UniProtKB/TrEMBL annotation, chain A:
The lineage of its organism: Bacteria, Thermotogati, Deinococcota, Deinococci, Deinococcales. It comes from Deinococcus multiflagellatus. This is Succinate dehydrogenase, cytochrome b556 subunit. It is found in: Membrane. InterPro entries: SdhC_prok (IPR039023), SQR/QFR_C/D (IPR034804), Succ_DH_cytb556 (IPR014314), SuccDH_FuR_B_TM-su (IPR000701). Pfam families: Sdh_cyt. It comes from the Bacteria. PANTHER family: SUCCINATE DEHYDROGENASE 2 MEMBRANE SUBUNIT SDHC, SUCCINATE DEHYDROGENASE HYDROPHOBIC MEMBRANE ANCHOR SUBUNIT. The chain crosses the membrane at residues 30-53, 73-91, 112-132. Its cofactor is heme. Belongs to the cytochrome b560 family.
From TrEMBL, chain B:
It is found in: Membrane. Its main location: membrane. This is Succinate dehydrogenase hydrophobic membrane anchor subunit. The keyword Metal-binding applies. InterPro entries: SQR/QFR_C/D (IPR034804), SuccDH_FuR_B_TM-su (IPR000701). Keywords: Heme, Iron, Membrane, Metal-binding, Transmembrane, Transmembrane helix. Pfam families: Sdh_cyt. The chain crosses the membrane at residues 20-42, 69-90, 102-123.
Amino acid sequence: MCGRKAAPAKRPGKDVEEDLRMYRGREGQWAFLLHRLSGLAILAYLLLHVFSIGSFIFGERFYMTIHERYDLWPFRVGLVFVSAGVVYHAFNGLRIIIMDFTGFGVAYQRQMWYGVLLLSVAAFVYAAWTLYPRIMGGY
Amino acid sequence: MIRARTFTDARAQSHTNAELNWWIFMRISGLILMFLILGHIYMTFIQVSESDATFDAVVNKLANPAWKFYDWLILSLSLLHGANGARYSIEDYVRSRPNRAWVKGVFYTVVALVFAFGTVGLFSI
C-alpha cells in the first residue's frame, strides 16, 4: 500500500532525487524525517554519553575533565534538545507501532502525530524550565 | 530499505528473513526502550538534579547489580536499535556501493567499540 509506485518512465537524474523522499505527502513525510533526524541525533548523544559516563573506569580526574567540557554552553543548551528529541522519538515510535499492528492506526496517524508534537513541545518547555539555572549559570 | 507500513507489507517486502527479523526487533526493542529510557531520564535527570551526578554518585549507583543489569539492558538494546536505524539511513542515502561499505564498516566498528567499553565499564566496578 505504500512504497514506490510503478511510475512511468522518469528521467534518470530525477529518479534518485524522488526516491530520496520516501513518503511524499504531508504530515507523514515530516513525521518520517523528524523520526530519522531525532534517531540519529539520539544515537550520537548515546555514543558520547556511554563514553563519558564509562570513563569513570579511568579514575575521577579523567571523568571530571570530560564532564567539565560539558559546561560549554552548546552542551547545556543541547540537553534541552536531547530531552525533546527522545520524547519525540519515543512517542512517534509508539505511533508507528500502532500504525503497524492495529486496524485504526493508519486512519488516525495524522491526529496521533499532532499529539506527539504537542508532547515533544511540552517536553522541550519542561526541560528548558528545569535546566534554566544550569543553562544560565553553568554547573 | 524498509518502506513497509504494516506487518503484512513488511513480510511481503523483505527479501530475507533477517530483514524481517530486524523489522520486528525495532518494534519490540523500541517498546521496551520507551520504558527503560524514560525511566532512566526520570531517575537521573528529574528526580536527581544533574549537578548531583558526580563521580561518587555514579560509582555508588553502579555498585548495585540491579542497576548494572538495568543499564546494560539499555546499553545493548539501544545500541542495536540505534545501529540498525542508522543502517537504514546509510542504505537509503549513501548510494555508491564502495562508499556504503566504508561508511558501514567504520560505523559498526565505532558501535562495537563503544559497546565493549560500556560493558567493561559496567562490570569492572
